[in-house]
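Forum > Structural Biology > Help requests

Title: Can anyone predict the 3D structure of Acyl-CoA dehydrogenase family protein?

Hi all, first post here. I have the sequence for Acyl-CoA dehydrogenase family protein but no way to get a structure on my laptop. I'd be grateful if someone could post the C-alpha cells.
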Amino acid sequence: MDAASTAEQDEIRRTLRELLTKHSGPAEVRAAVATPEGYDTGLWHRMSGTLGLAGLALPEEYGGVGCGPAELAVALEETGRALAPSPLLATAVLTAPLIAALGSERQRAALLPRIASGGLTCALAVPGGSLALALGLTGDNADDSWAGGGRAGGVQARTVEGRTLLYGEATQVLDGHSAGLLLVAAHAGGFARSRTVLVLVRGDAAGLARVRLPTLDATRTQAAVQLRDVEGELLGEDPPNAPAGVLGALAATGRTAAVMLAAEAVGAAGAALDRTVEYTGTREQFGRPVGSFQAVKHRLADLYVQVEAARSLVYCAAREAGPGGLALAAALEALRTVAGETIQLHGGIGFTWEHEAHLYFKRATADELIFGPARRLRAHAAAGLFGEVAA
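Reply #1:
Sure, ran it for you. C-alpha cells for Acyl-CoA dehydrogenase family protein below:
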C-alpha cells in the first residue's frame, strides 16, 4: 500500500487545520462546550457549509462531495487534533450512511442534501447505551438483546392506524440533545416475531424529551432520549428482508465508524505528543531542557512509534477496507498512553484544570468507555478475521 496521501487529502488537511487553529484552540473549545448546543455553531457552519465536511463522503447526486473513507478520515484526524466539538461524527459517520443505505429514494432526496449542506444535524439513538455492540464493534449485533429483544425495555415500535409510534428510552446518544433528526433503533413485532427497525424522528416531535447528560469528556456531548408514543417514520420501504438489512447496515456503518473514530483518536494522540515534545524542549531542570535527558527521549520516542503505528493502521483500513476494529483498538491504546504521559511529563502543571492535558486524557478514557474497551475491539476483530480465513 502506498502510504503517501493524495493532493486532495493534503488540501483537506491543510485547510481544516488552518481553520481549527484559528477558531478551535483550548479556550475556544472550553467556550464551545459551555453553549447549549455543546459546540460552536458558527464553526460548524464553516466546516460543513464552506468546507463541505458534512457531505464529504456522500454521493454528489445528493449534494455531497463524493469522496471516500480516506478523505473523511483525514478530516476526523484534524478535528481530533483540536478536540473540536461538532456534530460531524454523529451526523456524517453514524447516521448519514444508514439513511443512504436503507432509506427510500424519497427519504434520501429529502434528507441527504440537507445533511450535506450542514443544515440538518443527526444522531443515532440506540437503547441501553450499547452503541458499540449495535454497530458490531465489540460483538455480533445479530444478538439483538442490545435493543431490548422485544421484551420490556429498550425502544418498542408499534403501528397504530398506519402511524409508527415509539415508546422507550435511549441513553448515551451522541449529540442527541441538539440534533434536528434522530434515527432510533427500535424493536417491532413483539417478542415472538421481534425484529429491529430504524425509525426517523424529528427533533421537535411531540412526546420526545431530550436531556443533555454530564459527561467525563465534555467535548463529546451525550443525551438521554425518552420517547412516549412519539410518531416517527420507518426508514426505507420495509421489505421482507428488513431485519437482516438493518443489522447488516449497522455492522457496515460500524466498520467505517471504527476507522473514523481511530483517525480521531490518532489526531488527538498526535496533538498531545506534539505539545509534550514542545514543552519538554523548553522546560528546564538542572540547567538543561527536560527533553534532553535520555530517559525522557526514550519515552517520547516510544510514544511516537506507537502513534505512527496506529496512524498506519488507520489509513490502511481506510484505503483497503481493512479491519477497522483493530485500527480503533490500536488508536485508543495510543491515545490513552500518550495522554497519560502528557500529564506526567508536564509535571505539576499537567494535573491542573487550567491545562489542556486533562482534555486529552478524558477523551481517551471516555472513548474506551463508549466504543471499547480495546481488548474487546481486538478480540472481536480477530475472531472475524480468523473466521474468514477458516471459511
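Residues 100 and 108 are 6 Å apart (CA to CA). The radius of gyration is 21 Å.
Shout if anything looks off.
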